[in-house]
Amino acid sequence: MYEHELVKLKNGSVKENMIEPELKLGDLGSTLKQKLNELSANRRLVIGDVAASAISVVMAVVLANGGVLPAQPAAVLIPLVIMSCLVALAILPMSGIYKRHTRSTSLRDVTLIVRASALCVGVLALLGMAVQITSQVPLAVYVIQFLLIVPAFGSLRILARSTEFKRKVQGRAARLDGKIPVILVGTGASCDLFVRSLRNTESKYEPVGIIDDARNTQGLYFHDVKIIGSLLDADAVIERLKFDDTLPQRLLLTEPVTHFESDGIRKLTRWAEANSITVSRLTGLEELGTESSGIRTVNPEDILDRPQKAVERSMLREMFQGRRVLITGAGGSIGSELTRQIASFEPAEIVMIENCEYNAYSIDMDLSQNFPEVARRIYVADIRSADRVNSIFERHRPELVFNAAALKHVPMVELNPCEGVLTNVIGTRNVADAARNIGAIAMVQVSTDKAVNSTSVMGATKRVAEFYAQAQDRVTNGTDEATRFFSVRFGNVLGSSGSLIPLFQRQISEGGPLTVTDPKMERYFMTIREAVQLTLVAAAKGLNLENSHGEIFVLDMGRPVKIVDLAERMIRLAGLVPYKDVDIKFIGIRKGEKLYEELFDVTEEHRESGIPGVSSAIPEGVSVARLRAMILKLEQAAKDGNELSVKKLLKELVPGYGANGLRPIEAKELVNRPSKPRLHAIPTESLVGGFHKQDALETIGGR
């Protein structure tokens, strides 16, 4: 709709105060039909206009007669009123006054209203002079009627538009959760047309404010959108936005960047990027029809077929302001977003642990540029090392701990199960123990829906990590210690490293095909920003619980999305046609993957958390003593590189983790493998991985 209006303006097809000739020779029938359609569509307005014509002529006669009715009103007024109504019914449709939709009423309709009014009054005056019974009506009556009928017609249209607009605003308010809140920058022609188009379409955007490029306009309204500040005072605007309860999800520049004051726009866009607010630009008039106007960038939030959840930032500010916070995996997709969002709440200190040197450098540079006032310390360290983790915790004594470090790629962890255990299980244990040792207020374990009824090593290790956080929280309940432990579980994160979106974007740029494992495969999806915001809210909620049992806060991700549907949507958003411009290829399910994911285990108690967009799961759990003993065995098996033992122990510890990771091998198959002398069959005397004894299992190493 917005681009359509721009195109019409560019091509000159929309002209101010111009209406096409209504009658065309040889097309009288279609013209009459069009007029009837216009009258039907605007029937209420037609009735109002006819009534206004009748009332205005009566008032004109009264005013011309010194404010009193004539001695014999019926003799003159009734014929005059009847003629006025008939003239209005005949002339107004032909003037084109009903051709415009009431929602598009604007100042440019004034000329049309004046012309239609003059035509009606002129025809009525000629008719009045021609009819004997009204021939004595003075000319002043028609002049006064014209002066009355113009504002009457205008008021009727304003009333019609305001009623329509009120209805639309009420509908918009009822659907506010389904809109993307945006801030517009600039008040030029593009902004004007964009705001107008939102009124006439079911747009997914909801402008919550405008940042002007001029001074002294703060507090004014551009259409129905409030101007919240000026780019010439960008610091004040940013400070105002920082303390808003709900941040916008997108910043829309209505003009090219070079149009705005350079220092102000640089500060604003830098702040937006630091808070994971997408910065986009509306297509300008000068770009329409050019090659560049067809280029489209696919944003992760565009992929979601549902509104993102909004949170109250005031509660989060109260939680983090002035506190020491430690984040593991701080340079990863989730960890870096956690770090940026927490930094925006002015903590006393942020301590970051990151195993990858480049990721550590990147997040440290990010904070130094966007949050230089926040004290920070970055450590290139591995949470697998308990001594290193304890040393960092003792040095900084964090109050809040977020464990986002993990190996999360299902096929990679399936190929490297020992590494998955050492990071996801042993690393989590080290962080949790260190948090308790220094008396932290809370530790939040970042988990995944793949931990539920897992068929993969990655999911099973994350489930064990959930068990450990829950067990530690139950210890807190039984002691005088204050450290709370809870987990936050969510699904796939759009745009994260190693996720589908970057892969599909690269494949689209290369011309395809897009690779999908199975046409039936579906997943839950969230944006990084949404997942992190709800994680922080869940953490705040967890701190307010008087008694907890290792709650797992499960984020509401709407309905699961088929991967093939997501692939098709991305192709369309790129302006291409699926299976025609870009093909989709099905490559088969990879090791450890499921066709669908689940949010709750059958053994978990499902509760409402009291947080919009967040539910609570209470697992049966595992006793601390058994859990510690099994984790020690897992640690030893992983350090020894014994993959079979690792999978066996995970099977014993994690309900629902089936035999997917343990493939039965026939003994004769092993005998026929001369090139692999270290492989041999071991008869088992008990159930291993769901297979009966005497089955031969493939093992590596000669242990």
Explain this structure to me?
- The radius of gyration is 35 Å and the shape is elongated.
- Helices cover 47% and strands 14% of the residues.
- Helix 4 (73-95) crosses helix 5.
- The longest helix is centred in the N-terminal third of the chain and has 36 residues, at 139-174.
- It contains 23 helices and 23 strands.
- Helix 12 links the parallel strand 7 (324-328) and strand 8 (349-354).
- It has a nine-stranded mixed β-sheet with strand order 9-8-7-10-11-12-17-21-20, with helices on both faces. A six-stranded mixed β-sheet has the order 3-4-2-1-5-6.
- The chain has 703 residues and is of the alpha/beta class.
- The chain folds into four domains: 10-171, no CATH class; 176-295, NAD(P)-binding Rossmann-like Domain (Rossmann fold, 3-Layer(aba) Sandwich), CATH 3.40.50.720; 313-491 and 528-555 and 602-624, NAD(P)-binding Rossmann-like Domain (Rossmann fold, 3-Layer(aba) Sandwich), CATH 3.40.50; 663-703, no CATH class.
- Belongs to the polysaccharide synthase family.
- This is Polysaccharide biosynthesis protein.
